Amino acid sequence: MTITANETQTDQTSNVDLIPELAPYWQKLDFRDILSRPAAFVSISQSNSVYSPGGLLYHEGHDKRGSIPATIKVVEAARKKENFISFNWVGYSLFRDKYPQTEFDKLQFDYFTGEGEYTEEEKDWDISLVDDLRAMVQPGDNELFEKAHQTTFFGTDLPLEFSRKRVEVVVFAGIHLDWCIEGNVRNARDNGLLPIVIGDATGAAEREQEAETFRRINDYFAPVISAEQFVEWTN
Questions:
Q1: Residue 181, φ and ψ in degrees, nearest 5
Q2: Helix residue spans in 35-178 (DSSP H)
Q3: Continuous segment of H or E residues that includes residue 3
Q4: Which CATH superfamily is domain 16-234 in?
């Protein structure tokens, strides 16, 4: 099942080289200690829409940019740690006709979907977790859909999940870096959590947008690290 979309893609590589040096205050952290506390992993919008031929956002080329291998590396390492007590796979749909919408929402998301007509089967396929990550899901994991504009902290069970399990640290991966990742990181901080972004497990619509977003997140909201650093500090 595919949806008509621009299937042209560029041969891009990992953005790990764009991850900035940790801000001076984050450099004072003991990441081995931080990552040994009660922790959650959150994947956002890692769906067919962005990774599979025919997806609405496949033209952005995320399947060539390394975020899936980096995400898998992080999940495999986190599964080995008893302190990672919450795994969450958050979907994001560009088809918002069944969501509460403002006039702004309707205009924006109709534009994103080209105001086309899609079957329910096509919509379900587009928003489904990509197969490589579907294989990583285990019983007890949470599968949610983000219904707010840029955060899972409104309209889902995620805050209650974190509260009841006494989660302190939240590790984020997914798409898009400068939309849902940044939005969720900001909300995590405001909810008293310690967010960490796995930079090479994320991506913006265009690679050129990533360096500035990494800098902004790293300077103001959360440490941005690589999947390799995560594995090292949880080993």
A1: -65, -55
A2: 48-51, 67-79, 103-112, 120-127, 131-134, 158-164
A3: none
A4: Isochorismatase-like (3.40.50.850)
What would the pLDDT profile of 131-173 be if each residue is shown by its tens digit?
Answer: 999 999 999 999 999 999 899 999 999 999 999 999 999 999 9
| Count of CB atoms situated within 10 Å of the CB of 135 | 9
Under 8 Å between Cβ of 220 and 193: no
Residue 233 · residue 35 · CB < 8 Å: yes
- The helix (H) or strand (E) run that includes residue 202 is strand 194-203
- Could you tell me the two tokens for 207? 């690679």
Q: List, for residues 25-43, the tens digit of each pLDDT value.
A: 999 999 999 999 999 999 9
Strand ranges, E, within 112-186: 142-146, 169-175
Tell which residue, 164, 147, 156, has the closest CA to residue 40. 164
Furthest-apart CA atoms within the chain: distance in Å? 52
How far apart, in whole angstroms, are the C-alpha atoms of residue 52 and residue 29?
38
Instruction: Locate 126 and state its tokens.
Output: 């587009």
